[in-house]
TrEMBL record:
Classification via InterPro entries: DUF1636
Domain of life: Bacteria
Protein name from the UniProt record: DUF1636 domain-containing protein
Species whose genome carries this gene: Halovulum marinum
Length: 130
């Protein structure tokens, strides 16, 4: 690992899965997802975790973004909070951190993230030529 900025997993803390969206007696599933992802990321080099209110992907809750300075950002959704989903997200983020551009070949994706990508956003500033 280099001195590159870390890859950050941003978890939407206000997300609710579509079937539970109107149930205001329960905490948003995003809060649980944040705790699970933070636990799974402990000790993983190059990966940070944070929460934020509303990633505006309500139809895809639970939503997360995987990003790093100068790299592609990926938005993923349709997760049910659970250790398997959290571990898959952290595994993908670790691969994102190792990639100079943030792009990770499909064959390397953890099974638990396949089918969950909702958007890819190019970096604001392109990294310097290698």
């Amino acid at each position: 690992m280099t001195d590159a900025p870390p890859t950050t997993i941003t978890v939407c803390t206000t997300c609710r899965q579509p079937a539970l969206r109107e149930d205001r007696d329960r905490a948003p599933c995003g809060e649980e997802m944040l705790a699970l992802v933070a636990r799974a990321a402990r000790g993983v080099p190059g990966v940070d975790v944070r929460g934020t209110a509303c990633l505006m992907g309500c139809e895809h809750g639970c939503n997360v973004a995987v990003s790093a300075e100068g790299k592609m950002t990926y938005v993923l959704g349709r997760f049910a909070p659970g250790p398997e989903a959290a571990e898959a997200l952290v595994g993908y983020a670790a691969l994102h951190a190792e990639s100079p551009t943030g792009a990770v070949p499909y064959r390397q994706w953890p099974q638990g993230v396949k089918g969950h990508f909702t958007a890819r956003v190019p970096p604001l500033a392109m990294p310097p030529a290698l």
